[in-house]
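1st attempt posting a full record on here, be nice pls
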Amino acid sequence: MADRRTRVLIIVLLLALPCAVLFSVSSGVLNIPLTVSVQSLGHFLGLPLSSVDPQQQMVLWSIRWPRTLMAAVVGACLAMCGAAMQGLFRNALADPSLIGVSSGASLGASVAIVLSSTVLAGANELLGANSAIINTYLVAIMAFVGGFIATLFVYRLGTSGGETSVATMLLAGIAITAVAGAISNIFSFIADDLALRRISLWRMGSLDGANWQQLTVAVSLVGLVLIALPRYSRVLNALLLGESEARHLGIDVQRVKLLIIAWTALGVGVSVSVSGVIGFVGLIVPHLVRLLIGPDHRTLLPASALLGASLLVLSDTIARTVMAPVEIPIGIVTALLGAPFFISLLLQQRQKLALL
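the predicted structure (as tokens):
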């Protein structure tokens, strides 16, 4: 019965994702029929379909397709990394941000934005039209570097005598998040009005800067994460029993924890660097999937990736259309969806403790 339910869910998710993508690329200030979106895709692939209106084709391939596909890639990565973190920490409330990736990336982006508006202002004038492109990539690179360094600090603080304590890592993550947040606030304080607005919008998450070049880089790196993490499914299943039990099964727990944390840091760091800080996807999606098909990571990880991709695609569609032509930061949409769910999780945890 459980296997049948799992197969049904996977099939539903596989069908839902392309439907969500087509719905997203067709929605916006300029409404484009679904048939035109399909024709546009076929036209790009060289299929003998009827021609597409040039204006609609430009909107689709310059803006909507890269943005929607970026949402799918980021959503899949955040959800799978969240499922891996919850399995590693053996806690349904765990989230990739707990290891400091998001806060470190936010600090790196804040530094890059302030530098681009002050120290590099003269260079921007010399670069002319290329300055916007360079600044965008500078923010992405600095965000990734910040997330990676924060994760490295958390891991070092949580490791002693060759052993990594999950509890210590969580506390270290909280500490690093606080420090990175304080330093980010310093840069926000010294930033000018334009830079401060950019920092605020980046922290709320946005996919409006997505393009084919960024998508290519994101798919290349995130693809590695989406391929690598499912290889640890059986190990994560064993870790659910406890670290000592996993060692008795012949698993090198220390090495596995390091690898899972490293892959998660890479995936979340890349995702945050191209989309800003988007919360709750890595928290609510794995929990929903776990409620439906159970905790087996062999199916939990891919199912979470599929659901996370669809969820973020639909969230981005809401962000673009609900107050069109004004665009809501996508982080606000995911927070509005995820915060009530997080509160319900806390209430469930409290009830369990009360029963004990």
